[in-house]
Amino acid sequence: MRKAARCGLLVLLFAACFSVPTKRYFQIIATGKDAQLHPKVGKALYIEPVRVDPLYDDFRVIYRVSMFELKYYSYVFWAKKPDALFRAAMGDYLNEKEGFTRVTLDVLQGDPEIVLRSNVRIVEEIDNPKVWFARLAMDLEFLEFKSGKSLLRHSFDRRLPLLVRKVRQFPVILSRILTEELDIAVSKLAGVAEVKEPTHADDHH
Fold it and tell me: How far apart are CA 1 and CA 3, in angstroms?
C-alpha cells in the first residue's frame, strides 16, 4: 500500500511539473473611455485591409526580452490574425464614435468618400524586469476615395506600462493606445475635411 501511495504521489508530482498551460486567445477591442463622440467629418469611410509587418502578423503573441531578442508565447494566441483584429477594432470604434456618416469594411457598400489605409509596424509586449509594456507603432492615412489624394497622415510609436506583469493586460493596454491615436487622427481629419467641404457661399458661384 505504501509503495502504491508513493507511486501515486510521484505520478501527481510528475504531472504537475510537466502540465501544459491552458491556451488563451485574445482580441483587440477599441472602446471609448467616455461617451463623447468624434467631431463630425460628415463623409462615408471605407477601411482598407490592414497591412501588418510579416514578423507580427502571426496568431502567436510576441514579447520582447531585450533589444535583440523576441519570443513567442507558446500558450497565448490572437483570436484572429492581427490584420483582421485591427481592422475590425477600428471599424467598430469609428462607427461607435459617429464622426463619419458610415463606416464600412466592404468597398462595394456605403458609397465611400474617404479611405483609411493603415500599416502596423510593431505590435509587441515588452518584458522589462520591473515593468512590462504594450508597444504599438502604426501609420494611418486618410485618402479621398475617388482621386486617391492624401488628406491626412498620422504615424505613432507608443508604449504604455501594463498595470500588472501579466499577459492578460497586454491586449487591454494595446487597445487603449489604438483608441487614443484614432481619436487624435479623426480630430485632425475633421479640420481638414471641413476646409475641403463646399460652403453655401461657394454654391452661388
Answer: 5
